């Protein structure tokens, strides 16, 4: 059911005027939006605060109750403190099936005193291998910080505290597929990945430091909710602006980064990026096509 609303855009983007929401979801309570996925006994609830525990028996993970197409998803996370080597805390969106689409934040633990690395990745039609890694301009274990995906038909933006750290632009005009036709769930988990997570797997998880705790709050989904029984093509239509039906994510101001955001992204890339698949000639002797056309 359509619900008209005046929504000032509070996401660091330019404000827009009257829009219409259909099937959007917005909340800050875990239980309204999400459900435990596995290892229920590794969930700790402290009021509005959720903690996931990793020990040498199991990690833990949760998923959204619904799937979405276009909008913005945010979670505030405080990462594992101290020696977190070998652990991975992930926050991601994904559709189902072998030809799935996926947007990933993976926080790679490290030994005490070393910076956390954040690996981002994008899968389109089941194809990934688009890794970028960066360190952060703050200690993500000392306080909560916001991690977000903004997704529309023109771009996918990865944000840290509203600063863009990665943009995947729609380049269909160059013959490249773009993730715009599959509803995606929202997920997070913590698990042991000491075969690759820290220094390429050279540093293993020290279980004497267990349990490893990742803390969560501020669960927000402002996106187009997609009923399970509705076909993907129909979802794509109902989640796109047409006629009197206007969605904030389709506004022209969100088709690309504004000038300030472009400068922020360039700053992140210049000062904090430590790996970019686009420049890895050993893995990709021929530069991937999207890297040739991307402006950032």
In short, what is this structure?
The chain is mainly β and 296 residues long.
Task: Give an overview of the whole structure.
By secondary structure, the protein is mainly beta. Strands 3, 5, 6, 8, 13, 14, 15 and 17 form an eight-stranded antiparallel beta sheet that branches. An eight-stranded antiparallel beta sheet has the order 4-7-16-9-10-11-12-18. Residues 1-23 have low confidence and may be disordered. The chain is built from four helices and 18 strands. The chain is 10% helix and 40% strand. It has helices at residues 30-33, 232-238, 259-272, 289-293, and strands at residues 2-6, 18-22, 24-25, 34-38, 43-46, 49-54, 60-64, 67-78, 87-94, 102-108, 117-123, 132-135, 145-151, 155-160, 163-169, 185-192, 212-226, 273-276. Strand 11 (117-123) and strand 12 (132-135) form a beta hairpin. Glycans are attached at residue 110. One of its GO terms (cellular component) is apoplast. This is Xyloglucan endotransglucosylase/hydrolase.
